[in-house]
């Protein structure tokens, strides 16, 4: 499973957290039509990924929704 939030902000329409063996990728999608993330970075674990999104994008914990996996890495 992944975690997603729809922010609908310029340059950050959607954020998808993608859990992989090496850590959690924070995938940022520029707009609704984006077929893939325009930027991403790797965090050590889900907790750190959510904290980074809280700090960088003001995403509260209760905004995240579980979604089926989307594999970009």
Q: What would you note in describing this structure?
A:
The structure is a single chain. The mean pLDDT is 94. This protein has one domain (2-67). Helix content is 16%, strand content 44%. Strand 1 and strand 2 (12-20) form a beta hairpin. The protein contains one helix and five strands; from the N terminus they run E-E-E-E-H-E. The chain has a five-stranded antiparallel β-sheet, with helices on one face. It starts with a strand and ends in a 6-residue tail after the last strand. The chain is an alpha+beta fold and 73 residues long.
In short:
The protein has 73 residues and is α+β, with helices and mostly antiparallel strands. It has one helix at residues 46-57; strands at residues 2-9, 12-20, 23-29, 39-43, 65-67.
